[in-house]
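Listing S7. Sequence submitted for prediction.
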Amino acid sequence: QVQLVESGGGLVQAGGSLRLSCAASGLFVRTMGDNTMVWFRQAQGKDREFVAAISWNGGSPSYAESVGGRFAVSRDRAKNTVYLQMDSLQSEDAAVYLCAAARGAVSGSDWTDYMYWGQGTQVTVSS
């Protein structure tokens, strides 16, 4: 089992920055190696959208085209935490951001590949 807890969301002005954290815990965390960790987002009334992914061992970061160059995903294995640094935020970035973990290495953008999910953290962008 893996428990994921997101934090760091909030209200920010357009053009501002936020850093989201996803803290992982549970027995399974000790055995994680190349498991894919991902950030999705879901705006009200819209489908879940892939944002960024990274391997638990730190390799292979990937991004949605809409956030490339503005967002950066990273992880700190010592803290069992994955981060999403979001810069130059725009109104269309407003959503609930969800962290998820796969049981192994997966392609990244298909939400059905992910077994473990956090509750999400709200990001609101004011213009």
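Caption to Listing S7: primary sequence and predicted structure tokens for the chain studied. The two ends are 40 Å apart (CA to CA). The mean pLDDT is 94.
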